[in-house]
Amino acid sequence: MTPTVILTRPKAQSASFAAKLRAAWDGPIAIVIAPLIKIVPVDVTCRMPDAVIFTSANGVSAAERLGLPIGLTAWCVGSKTAGLARAAGFATITGPGDADGLVADIIADKPTGVVAHIRGTHTRGNVSARLNAAGITCTDVVAYDQTVLGLTDEAISATSAQNSVVFPLFSPRTAKILSNEGPFAAHVHVVALSEAVKAAVSPTISREITLAASPDGNAMLSATLTAMQAQIGRG
After folding, report:
1. Which residues are CB-contacts of 86 (< 8 A; sequence separation ≥ 6)?
2. 20 shares its domain with 45
3. Burial of 17 from C-beta contacts in 10 A (0-12 / 13-18 / 19+)
4. What is the pLDDT of residue 233?
5. CATH number, domain at 59?
6. Where are the beta strands (DSSP E) in 45-136?
7. Which of 146, 175, 201 is the C-terminal boundary of a domain?
8. What is the pLDDT of residue 208?
C-alpha cells in the first residue's frame, strides 16, 4: 500500500510540491495538504536599500508588496527562491541553499551600501547580526508573520490509523510544531531538509528519518519518493 504523504508547508508551497510528487510517482498517490504555518502579512515600510536578502519565497512575495524597484540586487538562499525573485524583476545572486552558506557568500562579496533582509517574524541563522559583525550594513525588515495551525482533520485521521505516513519537513519550526501534535499511531517517516530540521524532530513522533542529500527542493523530492517506496508494504 502506498503511504500517505502529508505536506505541512503553507498552501501554495505544498500544492507546488504535491504537483511534483504526482508527476514523478508511478501509480496512485495519497497526498494530504495540512499547513502547520499560515503566512500573515505585516504592515511595514522599507527605506530604499541598495540590495535585499531573501531566505524564503515568502520574502519575495513580501518584497513585491513593499514596492521595491525592478532590477534591485537580491541575494537568494537557493535556486527556487532565486527563480521567484528573478520572475519578480530582481537581479538575483543564488546561494547554496542554506542561511550559513548565503551569509558566507555575502561576506566574501563585501557589498557596499545598505542590505535589507526581508523576512518573517520567526527566522533562523542570525543573518543580519552576522553580516553587521562582518562590517556589512544589514537591516531586518519583518514583513510577515508565520502563525501556527493545527493538523487538519484529514491529517489527524491519517496519523491515527495503523498505516504508513511520510512527512517532508522543510524547517525546524515546522518540525517542532509537528512534534507537539504527536505521538501518532501511524508509522511516521520524516524526510528532513537539513540537519537542523532533523534535530528538531521529536523521537516520539517518527520511527524513521531520512535526510535530504542537499537543502533544496529537488533533493527533498527525491528523498520523499525514496521514503514512499521504502514504506510500501508496511501498512
Report:
1. 92
2. no
3. buried
4. 55
5. 3.40.50.10090
6. 51-54, 73-76, 91-94, 114-120
7. 146
8. 93
Cα separation, 2 vs 125, in Å, equals 36
Q: Which grid cell sits at 77?
A: 538562499
Q: pLDDT digit string (tens) for 106-160?
A: 999 999 999 999 999 988 778 999 999 999 999 999 999 999 999 999 999 999 9
Q: Let me know whether 215 and 177 are in one domain.
A: yes
Q: In the 8-state DSSP scheme, what is residue 125?
A: S
Q: Alpha carbon of 199 to those of 22, 86, 161, 218: distances in Å?
A: 28, 32, 26, 21
CB 158 within 8 A of CB 4: yes
Both 192 and 206 in a single domain?
Answer: yes
Same domain, 94 and 60: yes
- Give 3's DSSP letter: P
| End position of a domain, from candidates 146, 175, 198 | 146
Cβ contact 89:70 at 8 Å = yes
Amino acid at 82: A
Domain range for 95 is 40-146
What pTM was computed for the model? 0.81
- Angstrom distances, CA of residue 232 to CA of 2, 191, 226: 5, 16, 10
**Is residue 105 domain-shared with residue 30, that is, in the same domain?**
no
> Can you tell me the distance from the alpha carbon of 223 to that of 27, in angstroms, rounded to the nearest whole number?
17
Does residue 176 share a domain with residue 134?
Answer: no
Same domain, 49 and 136: yes
Max Cα–Cα distance, the chain, nearest Å: 57
Work out how many domains the chain is built from and give that number. Answer: 2
* Contact assessment for residue 177 and residue 148, using Cβ atoms and an 8 Å cutoff: yes
* Choice between 123 and 185, residue whose per-residue pLDDT is larger: 185
